[in-house]
Design brief:
five-stranded mixed β-sheet; 5 strands; alpha/beta
Length: about 475
């Protein structure tokens, strides 16, 4: 109930984000866009979306409710993790820290796959912790955690890096040296199961689009990027995982009862983030969300030791815990009321609020196109091939409008003007564009027949959406 109380208010406060629009559009077109889904490496999330967008709801609301459900499952997975190590209080406290984590507060409200990947990480954490408490492990246990890691990769390709969690857990088992060979055998079994999921879709180039975000093709440049990526991740953690929470992790490391497990969890979380930093050329704060279950359980283990510590340490740890809770409460209240007033990282503020990817004023664009179509008796909305939220939005929300049809044209091609002219000879043509596209395609010079008739300004930046009509 606490989780829902923090996620449902303000669920639609943030406008449609570009990535949400891409996934919702493909889900509406399912299965026609299925190969694009495979290529993008986000299979399971879009399959769920494809079912939800057929319900008689606002598709954005349906997609965001799916993320809320996934965030709730993350809390369940953290509680289950605590139960497995015979400490449900720690699991519940980790769930509370997740509920009040700014990074989770933002991304549990967006119709993108990161919340689902986070929930997969929490259940993979529970399954991996089970490996540490079982007296006798066999290959079925290893195959089970490998299968969960495979499912994570099918939610979103970088979920493959979550394999670091069961790998660290298996290697950290306190078995006798005679069992070291068995540990490596179990690790190999888990890895094979993890890769099977990817291998099944390899003929369809699963996740091929992610290659655009990978920088390892240029090794020298990637070494330079690595340091910058690590700095970015550290900065995002300082905002979205308050330093007080990190202090709880340090407190857990200082206690002999929890040191080994906390170190294992921190190592797994660190390796996941390091893998992203090592190969990524493009990173965003949401990419590190799957490491949250590991980090927050480690912090909860530290907080749990308060009652077993000296009075001074108990006081310090209590203060640190309360700071983390208050930080999350204040952030959530501000974000639910006005996302622009919340303390977001610079890159998230740019993506969700200020740039072309933020869908402010899109409902007004839909209303304008609908009214014009009714007045004209039918229109064609032309979009560039490389589409953005200004184009996906109308396609999602006007798809059932009988008087509105859509077509795509490569505005960079030499014959784009001729193609638009031919379409306009049969039906009125209207072109929605964002301010960057107007400059990039040199609209005013290359397409003098396009006349700007409407303009919508982003309330938080200089970005704007424009509507043009073909009027020779």
């Amino acid at each position: 109930m606490l989780f829902l109380a923090t996620r449902l208010p303000g669920l639609l406060a943030l406008p449609l984000f570009n990535d949400e629009a891409v996934y919702l559009y493909r889900a509406q077109q399912f299965p026609a866009q299925f190969l694009f889904t495979i290529h993008d490496g986000k299979l399971l999330h879009e399959l769920f979306l494809a079912a939800l967008v057929r319900l008689p709801w606002d598709p954005l609301l349906a997609g965001r409710l799916l993320s809320v459900l996934c965030g709730w499952l993350t809390v369940v997975g953290l509680w289950l993790s605590g139960k497995i190590i015979a400490d449900t209080t720690t699991g519940a406290l980790a769930g509370l820290l997740y509920i009040l984590s700014p990074l989770a507060i933002v991304h549990d409200r967006l119709a993108i796959p990161d919340a689902m990947l986070g929930s997969m990480a929490s259940f993979l954490l529970a399954a991996s912790l089970r490996l540490t408490v079982l007296a006798q492990l066999n290959r079925w246990h290893a195959a089970g955690v490998g299968a969960l890691a495979a499912l994570a990769a099918l939610v979103k390709l970088p979920g493959l890096f979550l394999f670091t969690l069961p790998a660290v857990m298996i290697l950290a088992r306190s078995d006798s040296p005679d069992h070291s060979y068995q540990r490596w055998t179990l690790l190999r079994t888990a890895l094979i199961m993890t890769l099977l999921g990817i291998a099944a879709f390899a003929p369809f180039n699963y996740g091929g689009a992610e290659s655009q975000k990978v920088g390892v093709t240029n090794i020298a440049l990637q070494f330079e990027r690595l340091a910058a990526n690590v700095r970015h991740i550290a900065g995002w953690m300082a905002i979205t995982l308050p330093l007080s929470t990190l202090a709880l992790i340090g407190f857990g490391l200082s206690q002999p009862h929890t040191r080994r497990l906390v170190l294992t969890l921190v190592t797994a979380a660190g390796l996941f983030c390091l893998a992203l930093a090592a190969i990524g050329s493009t990173l965003y704060p949401r990419y590190i969300l799957p490491s949250w279950p590991m980090a927050l359980l480690a912090a909860a283990l530290g907080a749990r030791q308060i009652t077993r510590s000296a009075r001074v340490m108990r006081g310090a740890a209590t203060v640190v815990t309360m700071i983390s809770i208050v930080w999350g409460v204040v952030f959530n209240l501000q974000y639910a009321r006005d996302p622009a007033g919340a303390w977001l990282s610079a890159v998230d503020r740019r993506q969700y609020l200020e740039s072309w990817s933020a869908g402010y004023n899109l409902p007004d664009v839909y209303a304008a196109l609908r009214a014009i179509a009714s007045e004209k008796g039918g229109i064609v909305v032309v979009s560039p091939v490389h589409e953005r939220v200004i184009h996906f939005g109308p396609k999602i929300y006007l798809r059932d409008e009988r008087l509105v049809s859509f077509t795509d044209i490569d505005f960079r091609s030499a014959d784009a003007r001729v193609l638009i002219r031919d379409i306009a000879a049969r039906r009125p043509v209207f072109v929605p564009l964002d301010a960057q596209e107007v400059v990039a395609f040199d609209i005013e010079r290359r397409f003098p027949e396009l006349k700007r008739i409407r303009e919508w300004r982003n309330p938080h930046s200089n970005m704007a959406f424009y509507l043009y009509v073909w009027a020779p």
